[in-house]
């Protein structure tokens, strides 16, 4: 595994799948957490995720500086798990960050990452159209981010009901299989 995107809905098993893939690798592991604890329920979720990880994991909190955190983690660890891109996007959107610039920096960090990296994201575009402008913008930006990251990684998997469905298979060493051209981001 060089770079992997794991997509899925809420409680689909995407984080568990990504964590298992990274834990199968040798060495020191970095968990880049994008969640922020604003209430007791979210704090309980964060603590449960931490309890599910062994002592091999070093947690790095990166609610905003994700590209920088990936670069830094790659210098001290043998593999990285980012969980999750959707929360990171939400943080950036609500803080009024330039999403195009942040996405481009993320894509560059993934491409330059010298160690295996797995990234987790929610697929939020399968439901109804949200009733308010902010929710519609979030849905649209999440779709664009997922497309961009899927294009940047070597492998992409969709998780439904705990079962992985390969969207973009990892290429075998020495094969020159071309990936399909990505859809337009805008």
Automatic annotation (TrEMBL):
Q: What Pfam families does the annotation carry? A: CobU
Membrane-spanning ranges: none
Q: Which InterPro entries match?
A: CobU/CobP, P-loop_NTPase
Q: Which enzyme class?
A: transferase
Q: Which pathway features in its UniProt record?
A: Cofactor biosynthesis; adenosylcobalamin biosynthesis; adenosylcobalamin from cob(II)yrinate a,c-diamide: step 5/7; Cofactor biosynthesis; adenosylcobalamin biosynthesis; adenosylcobalamin from cob(II)yrinate a,c-diamide: step 6/7
Question: For this chain's UniProt record, which GO biological process terms are given?
Answer: cobalamin biosynthetic process
Instruction: Kindly indicate whether the keyword Kinase belongs to this entry.
Output: yes
EC assignment: the record states 2.7.1.156, 2.7.7.62
Q: Catalytic center at which residues?
A: 49
Q: Does the keyword Transmembrane helix apply?
A: no
Q: Name one GO molecular function term.
A: GTP binding
The record's function comment reads: Catalyzes ATP-dependent phosphorylation of adenosylcobinamide and addition of GMP to adenosylcobinamide phosphate.
**Official protein name in the record:** Bifunctional adenosylcobalamin biosynthesis protein
Organism expressing this protein natively: Stakelama tenebrarum
Q: Tell me the classification of the organism that encodes this protein.
A: Bacteria, Pseudomonadati, Pseudomonadota, Alphaproteobacteria, Sphingomonadales
